[in-house]
Design a protein that fits this description.
The protein is of the alpha+beta class. The protein is 27% helix and 33% strand. It has one domain. A four-stranded antiparallel beta sheet has the order 2-1-6-5, covered by helices on one side. Strands 3-4 form a two-stranded antiparallel ribbon. A hairpin with a 5-residue loop joins β1 and β2. The longest helix is centred in the N-terminal third of the chain and has 23 residues. The chain is globular. The chain starts with a helix and ends in a 5-residue tail after the last strand. The model has no long low-confidence stretch (mean pLDDT 87). The structure holds zinc ion.
């Protein structure tokens, strides 16, 4: 019972930390002033004996937080998730309009050498027209 409560407390602390990171990361309009919008399509795979497949589309606006860390949906997963921040930064820097890729969750589920979850993603970025 005590252990269970500790885990819950830890999870709560983690989610608070995530929230802080979210706000500390600033807004899309501040970080990527040239971006007018983004669409991130993710197909999420969870490897269990009954594999789960989930598709998510995330619309990003200039007023959205510039935070692209997607949580891993596996309950036991510790410190996992999918961070697209670096990918998006690179794309915007190079003014690329779209990219696809894959990412594995590097979190720890207590099982060794197991890929418990992965995503394939598709990112589309719209840029503001240069005003001159
Ligand atoms: Zn995970």
């Amino acid at each position: 019972m005590v252990r269970k409560r500790n885990i819950a407390a830890q999870r709560h602390a983690d989610s608070l930390k995530r929230n802080e990171e979210k706000y500390a990361s600033g807004l899309v309009s501040e970080k990527f002033p040239h971006v007018s919008g983004m669409v991130i399509k993710m197909t999420y795979y969870q490897e269990t004996y009954d594999p789960v497949l989930m598709v998510r589309t995330i619309n990003v606006y200039p007023t959205s937080p510039a935070y692209f860390h997607m949580n891993c949906a596996v309950k036991e997963c510790d410190n996992g998730g999918f961070d697209l921040t670096g990918t998006i930064k690179r794309l915007v820097k190079n003014r690329k309009k779209s990219a696809t890729g894959q990412m594995e969750c590097s979190g720890n589920t207590g099982k060794k050498n197991s890929t418990h979850a992965s995503i394939s993603y598709e990112i589309d970025i719209k840029y503001k027209r240069a005003s001159r």
